[in-house]
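Most newcomers find our protein records easier to grasp once they have seen one. Each record describes a single protein and holds just a pair of labelled lines. A learned vocabulary of local backbone shapes supplies the integers on the structure line. Nothing more is needed to start thinking about how sequence determines fold. The record below serves as our worked example for the rest of this section.
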Amino acid sequence: MRAAQAGARRGHSRSGGGLLSFLLLVAVVVLVARDPELRSSVLHFVHHVVNVVQNRADGN
């Protein structure tokens, strides 16, 4: 019985963590969408990361 209750609590905390992650993601998206300079910086960073990943994939 206690193991089932502990599992239920862990499951609940995971969904709560998922909700918190989702809300954090939404807040970041809204912040980036409202600030053109920040949006440009984020897009530049994403392009850089994609290029690095592609270069490493091509090297293997």
Summary: The chain has a mean pLDDT of 84. Residues 2-34 form the longest helix (33 residues).
